[in-house]
Amino acid sequence: MKPLTFPGGWERIVTSEEFPIITTLRSVMQYLEPGAVRELHWHPNADEWQYYISGHSRVTVFGAHGRAKPEEFVAGQIAFIQQGFGHYVEQVGSEPTKFFALFNSPTFEEISITKWLAGNPASIISDDFLIAKEEVSRLPRKALGIVK
Ligand SMILES: [Fe+2]
User: Fold this and answer.
1) Ligand 1 centroid vs 135 CA: distance in angstroms?
2) N or C: where does the chain have the smaller number of CB atoms within 10 Å of the terminal CB?
3) For residue 19, what pLDDT band results from cuts at 50, 70 and 90?
4) Distance in angstroms (rounded) separating the CA atoms of residues 106 and 56
């Protein structure tokens, strides 16, 4: 599988398109360089299980009403992110992080915070986040993936 590469790492996504025999799952192998962050995103159609293969990472999950919970993970541990909950992964150790993620849906759906912000009128973003419209216009317009 050819990886999707980003400034802070890469990911390989396998869905039912690549393997039609897979009718209930999709999987993603992710690699984060030291100091990298998998940008805030959520999956509208699936729960996510992450199995940590190497490295040390902090996963923060957001719920409604401003709830956020960070937890740290190392090799051999599993993180669970419920469908629709925003989350991001920070690589916090000196060694790269590699983890495998499974989703209980054969198709891959993801909404990144950058795409979500770009898809809303600047006036709403400006009013809701109390930032100037000029700043909103400078926000990224497409998903960043893994940043560093
Ligand atoms: Fe995710």
Assistant:
1) 27
2) N
3) confident
4) 28
